[in-house]
Amino acid sequence: MHDKNSEEKRIKDAEKAFDRRRRTFGMIFAPILALAVMFTPIESLSLEAHKLLAIMTLVALWWITEPIPIPVTSLLGPTLAVVTGAIPVSNAFSAFANPMIFLFMGGFILAKAMMLHGLDKRFAYWLLSRNWVGSNPKRIFLAVGLATALCSGWVSNTATAAMMFPICLGLLNSIKDMMAANGRTINLSEYKYATGLMLMTAYAASSGGVLTPIGTPPNLIMLGFLDSMQNIHISFFQWMIWGAIAMVVYFIIAYVVLSKLFPPDVDKIDGAEEFIKKKIAELGNWTRAQKNTLFAFSIAVALWIIPGFLNMFLGADSPILKMYNRLFPEAIAAMVGALLLFILPVNFSKREFTITWRDASAGIEWGTLILFGGGLAMGGMMYKTGLSQWIGDLIVAGMGGTVSQVVLVAVFSVLALLLSELTSHTAATNMIGPLAITIAVSAGLSPIPVAVGIALSASLGFMLPVSTPPNAIVYASGYVPITKMISTGVYIDFIGIAFVTIPLAIWLVELIVG
């Protein structure tokens, strides 16, 4: 045991040392490289595009190495673009008012209300209390994964993993108590099933994020790039069609791999049902705040999916559908649901409403919104100055002048995956999204498959604790050795990208969008 603790401490110390060197490298060499790019003559680039190339070099390297917070770097890019005269201030910061940001903001407020009033826990405990689950460890494993994946489609992956984490700890303690009653002492940090359950929580949270556009930032970032760069609008309903398929298949892959590598060694977990029943009892009866939150959330979801049904029954050219899309675009649907939370009373005589601004603002991930806006700003500037076209032409020329849809999606999906393992998946998507879309258009291909491929691949960071917050949360439990996370994540990452992401992005997306 002492040797195991020493080895884990050595690994964590090595991680901290690497992280420090990475940040120091970025702080020193990124500005030097950016200046070198600026003073290197490039005749085929306009002066504005040349300046932006140098700025983008700095921003990209700082997004990867993180010497300063990623959201700060996202503000630095547009600021430098204005200061250097590359872009007028109105163009540089207009992306921060993109409707997609308000779609995200509305989603954050709705998610905060669900967490604040315990709707997410009600759903999780309801699923775990189903008769088909019982005390069977394999079915508990499945139910925990399902609850996590379905919640993370609507609530942030991080918040969902944090919510499920204590539930899993309680179930594992039930196993430990059952073993002790039978005269067997186990160390949960060395118990295979504990490792598997924790990894299931992290992986299901990331897999579930692909379900909806608001499930995880890369989804909205790529939809934003398609809209701002090519005027291509993908509806909430359209995304959910391939998002649901991707989520289900990713989940099945993760479940099969984890259940094979970390099987339970008991047939029944005594005390598991009692633990869940106790937690449900602690929630008590439905409160007015919970009912209000469910109503507001249901209104938002209904407004999001109605256009899909109108399209199916009335056709894409229906005047009713066009009027609806003009009055209730996705961002407005999200804001309607969120604003209802401030209007629906819990106790009107005391002027108490479903959520306060203090609670709502605490639930908004301001850093993510700034990063999202900064990414859209940099992408838009690269497109307007012709920088993305220049880089895209270089890449196409380097590939022999012809690019197939399969190769394009495969290359950028793998690149998104690898970058997401090493840095924020939001930053990774911001870096490669504009290039991928520009290359697709330059090659005469639809940019939609590669955009979807990048968004889906960016959610497959399963190998390292730093890849995603859910990975970091379960790794902190002490029940997941980093070697197990890496070896398991490799399987799921590459099976998922080869057999789900690439085929789905190429064929199903084109089939749905036409």
Fold and architecture overview:
The structure is a single chain. The protein is mainly alpha-helical and 514 residues long. Helices cover 75% and strands 1% of the residues. It has helices at 2-38, 47-65, 70-83, 89-93, 99-116, 119-128, 137-152, 157-181, 192-208, 217-230, 236-261, 272-283, 288-314, 319-327, 330-343, 357-363, 366-385, 387-398, 405-422, 425-442, 448-458, 469-475, 482-513; strands at 345-347, 352-353. α1 runs antiparallel to α2 (47-65). It is globular and about 75 Å long.
Average the pLDDT over all residues and give the rounded result. Answer: 85
Unreliable sequence segments = none
| Helix percentage range | over 70%
Strand order of the largest sheet: 1-2
Write the H/E string, N to C.
Answer: HHHHHHHHHHHHHHHEEHHHHHHHH
Count of alpha/pi helices: 23
Radius of gyration: 24 Å
Distance between the termini: 58 Å
Largest sheet: 2 strands, antiparallel
The overall strand count is 2
